[in-house]
Each structure stands twice: as structure tokens, then as C-alpha cells.
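thought: user wants a sequence for this fold. calling inverse folding tool.
action: design(structure=
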């Protein structure tokens, strides 16, 4: 492909007439016409200006078939294209390095070292993002913390690796390879200009062409890409899983409308997440099956997603700022049954509970007796009150809580703009211990002497002596 055909194609592609291009280059229309017909060649300065006008490199303008390459862009990008790009950079790098003198080589190595240091410093913002995410995961239940933290670290490392490699390759290509080829072009033009000959570039000069056979390296490259695709395919399963989860969430949120519950922020967030994950699935699919990705559309979807996340966060703050957190430890919405027992007060008497928090209530009418009242739901559990030596044992046998009941309580709370700190309490038991003031004080003191824990909050798993009453492991203090 000659300069004249590329010049004509670029001019028509930009919808410029010969007069328009001549005005930009500050030459006559006849000069542009001679260049496109092959009767004359532009000067080096004009060729460099043409490259800037049409945003192309000297190599593309002088050697490549730009019209054919334009058609290739609409075709799928296969592994062979990727391999050609990689081997092309390696080939150009070898030519550049072998043509350097000692001084230039030292400068090249020094600049590469500085570039690697800068890329290493790019790790700092990624480390900050990792720490910020880790601080969020700390608030999550311990059984999920390590898994989420490991996945978060893996995700941050992958993003940093991709950004680092892309940054290095781009700067390396622009700073070294493209600059080297421009210098090489200028030298060729200067040499040909002395003899008043048309500037024949690279492929037309009878020089020894370096043919590099990558052999085993090409095979290893294909194998590496195959394993990368397998890994991407495996990760895409998680993306598809989350996509389906968000679809289900969207359906549930829409169903809330029929219950009189509407949260615009949740609907918007789910829609944005579906759009974002849908775009990600398409990108992963194109990579796995060697299809071309329209990156400008991907960028638009990414920007829309970021804006949507911001709007959803702002609206969500306005919607949920009116919510209150409740700590209903007695399951007032679900308890319907009552178990009541009375016991004679003794000096060493201790009330041990594993079925829920205990409230001590002063009732001076009981004299020397203690009354235990347990409110519960027979639908979810059975409650037992037994006596063993000096201990009153209150424990429960769980029957399981159907998901529909949990969902019903959640909808009830959302209508009242409330959320519970622990939804287990919504189906728990409420235990009240009644007695005279001095007997209540004695019960608390006996408990503190037994386990060394101050009365006032939820009780841990309890053991006395060498026996375990509630099927749990604990250590006496």
C-alpha cells in the first residue's frame, strides 16, 4: 500500500476535499492532487503534519493498508490477532534494541526502570481501596469474613495487574517504539531527499527482513491464553449467578408494590446492577469466544452505571434516614403461648436460661416464692422449665422457622419503617422472673458467683459443675 492510496482514503473518510486538505497543510490543491496520483511525494514535515491531522502513525500511513484495516475493525478479534499484536511488539522491540548504541541502551534501561517504579507506586491507591473494603467486611459475620476478604483481595490484585500491564504497554509503545520509528522514518527521508528520489519506506527498501519464528513460545502463549479463558469462564459463572440473584431481587421489589412498600433507591440499584452485570457478561463472552467488543459502548454503560450508583446512594439515604432500629428481644409479634411455673426460694437458687434474654421483675406479693413466665410460640419451639439440685433450667427445643414467616415479619417492619437488629429475636422467647426485691437480688448474686458474669445482658452458653445442660461447650470462670 502506497502513501497516495492511504492519503486519498483518509481524506475521503474525513469528508475533506483536496482544497480543504491543502488549506490545512498550507499547500496548493495541485500538490495534494500530485501526492494522491503518485506523481510527487510530500516533504517530511508535511508527512508528519498529515499524521497529526488524521491521527495515525508514519508506519500506518506509509506501509499499511488503512482501508483494509478499517474493515478489519468490524470483524471479530481472534487469538491470532492478539498473538500478532504481541509478536509485532516483540519484533519491533528487538529491532529497536539491536539498533541502539551503548549510550542509548543505558538511557533506555534507565527509563524502563523509572516506568516500572511508577507502576509499582500505582499500587498505593489500590491498597487504599483494599483497606477500605476490608473495613466494611469486618462488620460482617466472621464465617463470611475470610471468604469475602480473599475474594476482595483477588479482585483488587487482578484489576491492578490489568491496569499495570496496559499502562506499561501503552507508555512503552508510545514512548519507545513509535518514537523510534519516527526517527527511522526521518532518516530515510533525509537520505532519499539527497538523491532527489521518492521516499520508499521500509518494506520497499531492499534490506534483510528479520523473520522471527516464535515456535514453542507461540504454543506456550496459546496454552496460557487457553487457561486464562478457562479461568474467565469459571469467574463468569459467579457473574451469571449474581445476575440471576439481582433479577430475583428486582421481582421481589416489584412485588412489594402490591404490599404498599416502595423504595425507589432499591429498584434503581437493582436495575443498574443488572445493566452493569449484563455488560460484563457480554465482555466476558466476547473474550472467551474471540468476538469483538465495542469498547465505546462499554464505556457508556460504565459511566451510566456509576451515575446510577450515585443517584441510588443519595436517594437511599433520603429514604432510609427515617428508619429506626428496634431490639425486640421478646418476639412480641410472634409469641402466643405461655409457660408458667413457681418455685420455692432457696439460698443457692440459680435460674439458668438458654432460650432467650431474661427480665427480672420485682413482685413483693410473692413472698418466698419465685415465678417463671416464658412467652413463646409453640409453632416454632417447645419450652421446658425443670429443676436440678439448686438450679432452675429454662431451655427450648427449636422446631425451625419457615422462611415465609421471616418474610412476613420483614414486610411488617418495612411498612412501619423499622428494622430489627437481630431477626432471631423476632421468633425468640421472653422470660420473666418474678420475686420479692431481696430474692431477685439474691438470684442475681448467685448467678454472678456461679459464672462470674454481671447480670444485665444476653446470657452466654451456661454450664455448671461437670455437666452441660444445654448441649453447648463453655468454660466456668
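)
observation: tool returned 477 residues.
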Amino acid at each position: 500500500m502506497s502513501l497516495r492510496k492511504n492519503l486519498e482514503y483518509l481524506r475521503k473518510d474525513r469528508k475533506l476535499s483536496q482544497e480543504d486538505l491543502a488549506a490545512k497543510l498550507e499547500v496548493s490543491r495541485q500538490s495534494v492532487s500530485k501526492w494522491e496520483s503518485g506523481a510527487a511525494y510530500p516533504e517530511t514535515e508535511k508527512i508528519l503534519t498529515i499524521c497529526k491531522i488524521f491521527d495515525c502513525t508514519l508506519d500506518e500511513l506509509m506501509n499499511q493498508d488503512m482501508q483494509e484495516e478499517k474493515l478489519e475493525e468490524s470483524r471479530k478479534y481472534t487469538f491470532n490477532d492478539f498473538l500478532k499484536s504481541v509478536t509485532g511488539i516483540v519484533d519491533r522491540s528487538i529491532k529497536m534494541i539491536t539498533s541502539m548504541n551503548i549510550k542509548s541502551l543505558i538511557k533506555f534501561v534507565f527509563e524502563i526502570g523509572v516506568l516500572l517504579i511508577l507502576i509499582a507506586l500505582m499500587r498505593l491507591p489500590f491498597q487504599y481501596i483494599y483497606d477500605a473494603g476490608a473495613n466494611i467486611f469486618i462488620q460482617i459475620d466472621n464465617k463470611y469474613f475470610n471468604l469475602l476478604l480473599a475474594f476482595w483481595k483477588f479482585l483488587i490484585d487482578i484489576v491492578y495487574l490489568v491496569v499495570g500491564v496496559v499502562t506499561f504497554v501503552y507508555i512503552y509503545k508510545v514512548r519507545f517504539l513509535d518514537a523510534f520509528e519516527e526517527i527511522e522514518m526521518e532518516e530515510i527521508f533525509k537520505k532519499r531527499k539527497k538523491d532527489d528520489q521518492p521516499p520508499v519506506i521500509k518494506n520497499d527498501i531492499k534490506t534483510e527482513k528479520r523473520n522471527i519464528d516464535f515456535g514453542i513460545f507461540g504454543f506456550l502463549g496459546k496454552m496460557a491464553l487457553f487457561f486464562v479463558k478457562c479461568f474467565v469462564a469459571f469467574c463468569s459463572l459467579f457473574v451469571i449467578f449474581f445476575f440471576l440473584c439481582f433479577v430475583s431481587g428486582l421481582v421481589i421489589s416489584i412485588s412489594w408494590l402490591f404490599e404498599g412498600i416502595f423504595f425507589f433507591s432499591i429498584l434503581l440499584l437493582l436495575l443498574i446492577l443488572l445493566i452493569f452485570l449484563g455488560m460484563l457478561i457480554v465482555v466476558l463472552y466476547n473474550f472467551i469466544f474471540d468476538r469483538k467488543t465495542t469498547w465505546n459502548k462499554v464505556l457508556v454503560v460504565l459511566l451510566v452505571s456509576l451515575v446510577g450508583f450515585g443517584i441510588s446512594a443519595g436517594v437511599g439515604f433520603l429514604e432510609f434516614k427515617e428508619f429506626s432500629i428496634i431490639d425486640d428481644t421478646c418476639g412480641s409479634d410472634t409469641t402466643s403461648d405461655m409457660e408458667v411455673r413457681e418455685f420455692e426460694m432457696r439460698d443457692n437458687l440459680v435460674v439458668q436460661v438458654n432460650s432467650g434474654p431474661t427480665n427480672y421483675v420485682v413482685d413483693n406479693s410473692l413472698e418466698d416464692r419465685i415465678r417463671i413466665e416464658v412467652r413463646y410460640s409453640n409453632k416454632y419451639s417447645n419450652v421446658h422449665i425443670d429443676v436440678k439440685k439448686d438450679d432452675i433450667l429454662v431451655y427450648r427445643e427449636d422446631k425451625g422457622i419457615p422462611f415465609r414467616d421471616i418474610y412476613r415479619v420483614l414486610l411488617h417492619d418495612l411498612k412501619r419503617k423499622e428494622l430489627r437488629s437481630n431477626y432471631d429475636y423476632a421468633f425468640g422467647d421472653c422470660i420473666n422472673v418474678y420475686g420479692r426485691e431481696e430474692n431477685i437480688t439474691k438470684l442475681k448474686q448467685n448467678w454472678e458467683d456461679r459464672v462470674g458474669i454481671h447480670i444485665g445482658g444476653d446470657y452466654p452458653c451456661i454450664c455448671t459443675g461437670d455437666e452441660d445442660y444445654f448441649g453447648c461447650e463453655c468454660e466456668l470462670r
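thought: summarizing for user.
answer: Here is the designed sequence. The first strand starts at residue 324 and ends at 326.
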